[in-house]
TrEMBL record:
PROSITE patterns: HIS_KIN (PS50109). It is an enzyme of class 2 (transferase). This is histidine kinase. InterPro entries: BphY/WalK/GraS-like, GAF, GAF-like_dom_sf, HATPase_C_sf, HATPase_dom, His_kinase_dom, HisK_dim/P_dom, HisK_dim/P_sf. It comes from Massilia violaceinigra. PANTHER family: SENSOR HISTIDINE KINASE GLRK, TWO-COMPONENT HISTIDINE KINASE.
């Protein structure tokens, strides 16, 4: 049982959005203690905690489940919501509020992908709070469902990784999984993005605005990941990434936007940009923007923090090229040969760094443009260079496909 609980804690810990969810719950409800708890018939264990009350509960700590209201949520399958214990006929004489000293409390069930009970998203505070409003209950329900969806994704990933032993079977099952994942994630993700946009139109406190903006950025990051996996699926199943080619005279602005966005996301690192584009470039500007974003993010994550990252874009002598350079240890030649493979990560990388599709998407965009990719690493620096003919990209792409 302890091994199962430890695995459940690890599953919650693997969900990168959990701290943001707990912060959002605290901001929306006003509760100063919020947590995700794994609840069984005989145990209550914290999997993630936000504690501004100083209760001292940390991840992995347990309580006697019989002393908690989460036991009631487990047995009934329904939320428990208390605005003010002293005014609540059902709970004002209950032993749990007296034991833990709270006046406001909320607990919603979290279910596993198969519908079985996992635990609760819960929170409490010594002061009363308006928790039973429709807006609060809807938001909390959405957060509990989002955690359930993440648990489903983690379970599918774990099962896939355990089952796929043969390389061919690995590719086939992974592509099927990604196609389903891309479809199933986009519907709740669209609801979250719509919700954050609606919240941003309302007057909010500075703290709430910060939380909503963080939620929006997290949702956009998830959206980008979904876009990557869908590009992967289309690339593998449809013969490559489709392009919307045109003569683009304003490519500089597309590239500057990428640099500005990533500079905001990595304010502690320096990014230099050099652009020399005297004429239009025949390309798909959105895909070129995506290519630069993936290359630049790769440089920011893996390059030396103390050295700047340099982006150069130029068109000369009938060629268009983009290069991204960063300082840091050289990449081994054997590793360079693996960089553009889908789902590949160096052994030192952790799962939170992404799905391992960024450089694969870069290579597919280059292939669709009939371009080349070059990686040079040594003497404390690494440079990725995308290079293509400034014209006749369609003809070059057709030759590459042949």
């Amino acid at each position: 049982m302890q091994a199962e609980i430890a695995a459940d804690i690890a599953a919650i810990k693997a969900i990168s959005s959990v701290p943001t969810i707990l912060e959002a719950v605290a901001a929306i409800t006003g509760l100063r203690f919020v947590c995700i708890a794994r609840v069984t018939h005989d145990s209550w264990t914290t999997c993630a905690v936000r504690d501004e009350l100083g209760l001292g509960l940390k991840v992995g700590d347990g309580l006697d489940v019989a002393t908690t209201l989460c036991e009631e949520v487990r047995d009934s399958g329904r939320p428990v919501i208390i605005d003010n214990v002293s005014e609540d006929a059902r709970y004002r004489d209950h032993h749990t509020p007296r034991l833990y000293g709270f006046q406001s409390y909320i607990s919603l069930p979290i279910h596993r992908p198969d519908g079985s009970y996992f635990g609760t998203l819960c929170g409490l505070d010594p002061l009363p709070a308006s928790l039973s409003t429709t807006a609060t209950v809807s938001s909390m329900t959405l957060f509990a469902q989002l955690i359930s969806k993440h648990l489903e994704t983690e379970l599918k990933l774990t099962e896939s990784q355990s089952a796929l032993l043969d390389e061919r079977d690995t590719s086939e099952l992974r592509e099927q999984f990604i196609a389903v994942l891309g479809h199933d994630v986009r519907t709740p993700l669209s609801s979250i993005l719509l919700g954050t946009e609606l919240l941003r139109r309302e007057p909010l406190s500075a703290q709430a605005e910060s939380v909503v903006e963080r939620m929006r950025r997290s949702a956009l990051r998830i959206s980008a990941l979904v876009g990557d996996v869908m590009d992967f699926t289309r690339g593998r199943m449809g013969g490559g990434i489709a392009l919307d080619l045109r003569n683009e005279a304003g490519l500089r602005q597309w590239l500057e936007q990428v640099v500005a966005e990533l500079q905001g996301a990595y304010p502690e690192q320096r990014i230099g940009l050099e652009v020399d584009l005297p004429h239009s470039v025949y390309c798909d500007p959105a895909r070129i923007q995506q290519l630069l974003s993936n290359l630049l993010k790769n440089a920011l994550v893996h390059g030396a923090r103390s050295e700047p990252v340099l982006v150069c874009a130029r068109a000369r002598d009938g060629q268009f090229e983009i290069s991204v350079s960063n300082g840091g240890p050289a990449i081994a030649p054997a590793t360079i040969g693996q960089l553009f493979k889908p789902f590949w990560r160096a052994s030192s990388q952790v799962a939170s760094e992404g799905l391992g599709l960024g450089l694969f998407i870069v290579s597919e965009i280059a292939r669709s443009h009939g371009a080349t990719l070059e990686v040079i690493s040594g003497d404390g620096a690494t440079r990725f260079t995308f290079r293509m003919q400034a014209g006749a990209s369609v003809e070059r792409r057709m030759l590459v496909r042949a």
